[in-house]
Amino acid sequence: MRIHVVTPCVSESLGGVEELAAIASPGVEVTHSRIESGPASIETRVDEALALPGTLAAVRAAGDADAIVIDCMGDPGLEPAREVVPGLVLGPAQASMHVAAMLAQSFSVLAVLDATVPMIEELALRYGLASKLRSVRSIGIPVLELEDDRGRMIDALSAAALAAVEHDGAHAIVLGCTGMVGAADAVAARLDAAGLPGIPVLDPLVTAFKLAEALADLGLRPSRRTYPGP
Amino acid sequence: MRIHVVTPCVSESLGGVEELAAIASPGVEVTHSRIESGPASIETRVDEALALPGTLAAVRAAGDADAIVIDCMGDPGLEPAREVVPGLVLGPAQASMHVAAMLAQSFSVLAVLDATVPMIEELALRYGLASKLRSVRSIGIPVLELEDDRGRMIDALSAAALAAVEHDGAHAIVLGCTGMVGAADAVAARLDAAGLPGIPVLDPLVTAFKLAEALADLGLRPSRRTYPGP
Amino acid sequence: MRIHVVTPCVSESLGGVEELAAIASPGVEVTHSRIESGPASIETRVDEALALPGTLAAVRAAGDADAIVIDCMGDPGLEPAREVVPGLVLGPAQASMHVAAMLAQSFSVLAVLDATVPMIEELALRYGLASKLRSVRSIGIPVLELEDDRGRMIDALSAAALAAVEHDGAHAIVLGCTGMVGAADAVAARLDAAGLPGIPVLDPLVTAFKLAEALADLGLRPSRRTYPGP
Amino acid sequence: MRIHVVTPCVSESLGGVEELAAIASPGVEVTHSRIESGPASIETRVDEALALPGTLAAVRAAGDADAIVIDCMGDPGLEPAREVVPGLVLGPAQASMHVAAMLAQSFSVLAVLDATVPMIEELALRYGLASKLRSVRSIGIPVLELEDDRGRMIDALSAAALAAVEHDGAHAIVLGCTGMVGAADAVAARLDAAGLPGIPVLDPLVTAFKLAEALADLGLRPSRRTYPGP
Amino acid sequence: MRIHVVTPCVSESLGGVEELAAIASPGVEVTHSRIESGPASIETRVDEALALPGTLAAVRAAGDADAIVIDCMGDPGLEPAREVVPGLVLGPAQASMHVAAMLAQSFSVLAVLDATVPMIEELALRYGLASKLRSVRSIGIPVLELEDDRGRMIDALSAAALAAVEHDGAHAIVLGCTGMVGAADAVAARLDAAGLPGIPVLDPLVTAFKLAEALADLGLRPSRRTYPGP
Amino acid sequence: MRIHVVTPCVSESLGGVEELAAIASPGVEVTHSRIESGPASIETRVDEALALPGTLAAVRAAGDADAIVIDCMGDPGLEPAREVVPGLVLGPAQASMHVAAMLAQSFSVLAVLDATVPMIEELALRYGLASKLRSVRSIGIPVLELEDDRGRMIDALSAAALAAVEHDGAHAIVLGCTGMVGAADAVAARLDAAGLPGIPVLDPLVTAFKLAEALADLGLRPSRRTYPGP
């Protein structure tokens, strides 16, 4: 089985391929591509819009991959991509919000910037999960700075997660950017240390990837009634 | 006041400029542009995606227009466009669905093709109006054939409108493509002749245009909290 | 075109006719009447109930007006008025809540008194917009004192608007009484000065009036299926 | 204990007092009044509006009744009446829809005329029970003719109930006019005979009355936060 | 008429029989049983699960009772019990939440422990009343200690009720454990003394009992379509 | 990794262990147990209730399994089981409804008997997915007869799936009993042959199993805030 990750921006990011390869099931190959022209990161609706043609081209170029995962919490191009290829395409926001809803009565998402808060709220509405979303809290760190100081990112995520649980009633936490890959365990540990054990913290890219493995294994694909395509 | 209409495809369509000029309030100028490259019409999510970069460029190029109206029932680019310019941007789907909800307890939309049905249903969900939407019925005529035989289009719309009222419980009808511009009165007359008088039939482009006039006159613009932009 | 404003109480209010005339489109005449007997202002459900017979009489007496606007944020008589006359009737609450929902992801309403808070919350529910309403905040000034000290009113509205944005997550503000006519720009300026630029502040009477112009121009009227009348 | 029934129209109806007296608990007195001027029956929103002043006057005149029940399925004046008197006021629609929701997963209401269908649908929305309402079906008999031929009424109600269960998925039936008092058992028997046993059929006036007994006995009254009054 | 109360745990509790007998209508007999083996109290989902077989046995053994009331705010076994006997079965949570929704725009529930908060939130969702529920606040006293120090319980309930009204927007209060029987009036008095008069405080067991009297008197029973049983 | 399947009835069923072993990822062991006393199959709410103590005992006895899957579409004991063990517990209904909602705009479930229809509808409500559920259709074959004549089962499922897509607007199909394991592909092929290609047909047990693999691999567990336990 091959699962292909498409990074919908032109950053140097490797799309979490290393992390995904580390958790892939035996026999699952991870491949990766990034769009050739478009935004450097996705922090606004304009970034998303400009990323779409390149994303769909990358999806089309992914060939006979068993599943495609889009490497951005805005799920840019998720729905048109399902018209482009007949196979499975998953997005981190949709996958992680549904899994959070399975494991907990409610969840909050931790966004990079204030500007992405309404975008994530709208995704929850589109996916029919608005009643489960308690809040979207911003940590105030741009995508391209997440890597610079991981300690600062973990601190900010942990503080926001704590506030989401204590003040907003969140029972689970979804990290709100695929650039936060690898941070989930540290945030969960911080919550535990703060007296809040057993709060699931979901890494959206990793969650989408493992779901892609599972659903591809079952031969499940998006509905042609919902995504009829051309 | 100048209201600019952006047609998000490369068809020969004039974006209803003639019809809009005919109903514009005194002193309101209507200008029009169409994207320079992109799809010939918008009937799939892929068409929408590929139309976005050109649409945003056209919005940016519209300069000091008092309002911008997007000439497509999918409202492609409506939200990112509100990040691109500080002024008012409206879309036909959003405007006509809200007006229908003001005038009637429920409404149905008449789509061009089966493929656009789930796209319109999703718009109603995103706009928070899913509980008012009784059905989306398709007339089975591609966008680019709408002009070819207006009699056939009116027949098909009237039959679908009748079914929506009688079987789906619609109290108002929204035409589901801006290419249907000018057909609303004829459809309403047919409903009346069929014993169903007083059913509002909304032309989405025209409705968005008049709303743009009204809201621009009041100086209202999209919220910077919802559309913070770069 | 003539748009008629009905004030559903016996106060000396001129129903904002001056303000409306100032923003009316060229060729639009504004006329006004008030009920002959009934409450002095509308601050309770009893006030609303007692205003209804007079309001319907005034609607009927408005003759061949192209549209009727009810001059009260409770939209008293809006629905029965649509049974009384075949033409367009709009209410400030319905019109401004829908416009707010078009321009922003969420909104709050600023009420005169605590007693009107549940009434406005119920209107949002009836109009299908409860999921967009973040809060109704009261400024604690009775309707009949709004005019006495406009500075105090602007101060109170601005403080409540600020709280609604910062604490309740409102992305737009709707003034909650037609007696606040003319205050929207000042409140928006205060929000801007407080570091919250670009928050739409809607004057409900003015919004309903401009919508009435737009929809009357299109010949749109309430659905006979929803308002079948006698 | 005394429970007072207010008939909000000037018809000769006795407000079901006989039927209510027959099922009243020991020690419960039933009194009745009707409005002095207003509509002859309530079949439109205008009828409801014109009934309100008289209804509130009758509520005020009911004196020290332990509870007041409004004798109309539109619950006209229910909310302002709760501002007029400090005690318990109940309406047949609210009471019977809530009881139906307790006993069954879903319900349908059987209305007198098409014109009252949207009014009842709106009540379900206001009461927060829209998701339980499967349909409102009309039997096409005006209120004032219900008494004329009870056989015809029972036939029409039974046919509509059968259709609501079989086609709309209703698990319970609510009669949609207080003028149908006494018909519930006959309709339930017809459903049983048609192979649909165990479908609750609720008489709304009687249900509201017994609920009034129960809640008055507990000293429960409407919330002053929801109905603050003057 | 005989109404039978089933206590779904093996505690020494008398199921509020004394309190219920004191408020029963003339001619209504109250009988009581408790399960023979199972949990000592119900504070977790496991407690509820283990209580079900005994509860259904007790329901079956209740014989020809006119109605059965389950003596626990989790309504354990309410739905299967309606399959076991043909007659009326009510639960305190369902009955009191619906009555609260009739009397007020919104309500909060006061739970014994944090652990029962999500269970009560889920009940509101299942009953279709989630939009009315403002909060579930815990008082931090286990069920079996409620009786030990009633003063402490009243203090804790009053403080939580005050917070629910002032901070969460509750317009009514529902006590969240049938072991709190008899406390409603004291809590309401405390709210009144704190400047919040007229807030209904519902005792769930007593509310369910009086509703059972009322509905049994009307011969109403759960729908066989919803509870078809074997 | 070891995934343990608990069959919550005393039937001879092997809980689909063979089918699950065939699709398990490399290195995943499948173990199975069934309750020692309880119902022979689960077709009513009473069956579910009586299955709970045994199910929780089996969950507790599953020891150090990495995940537990409950082998029944009613998800009996899913929530209390999450209080009993700290690890991952999944149910077929919850897992398959969420996956269906990820792959399609809407879905229908195919139940064994009319009696289970309201139970499945209620699960969709509890899981927050009621707006995605178009219908639950019954095939009229008891659980214990499913195995007897697989041809008859496939025929009945295919006919119901076809009706759900064509008449109810379903975009995906969820099989409504874990006893239908292995039938998904055949039903999808029938839909394809009938002119409806590309409709996902989900086998709920298999879907829950693969999700359990994926989530266990990520170390995700149910939230302790939602399932606090003793």
Explain this structure to me?
The structure is a homohexamer of 230-residue chains. Chain A is α/β, with parallel strands linked by helices. The first copy, chain A, is 42% helix and 15% strand. Chain A has helices spanning 17-23, 45-61, 78-84, 92-103, 117-126, 150-168, 184-193, 204-217; strands at 2-7, 29-34, 67-70, 88-90, 107-111, 133-138, 173-175, 201-202. In chain A, the strands form 2 sheets. Chain A has a 4-stranded parallel beta sheet, sandwiched between helices. The first copy, chain A, has a 4-stranded parallel beta sheet with strand order 6-5-7-8, sandwiched between helices. The mean pLDDT of chain A is 95. Chains in contact: A-B, A-C, A-E, A-F, B-C, B-D, B-F, C-D, C-E, D-E, D-F, E-F. At the A-F interface, helix 4 and helix 8 of A face helix 4 and helix 8 of F.
Provide a quick synopsis of the model:
Chain A is an alpha/beta fold and 230 residues long. Helix content of chain A is 42%, strand content 15%.
Q: Name the helix and strand elements of chain A from N-terminus to C-terminus, one letter apiece.
A: EHEHEHEHEHEHEHEH
Helix percent of chain A reads 40-55%
Main beta-sheet annotation of chain A? 4 strands, parallel
Instruction: Write out the strand line-up for the largest beta sheet of chain A, numbering strands in chain order.
Output: 2-1-3-4
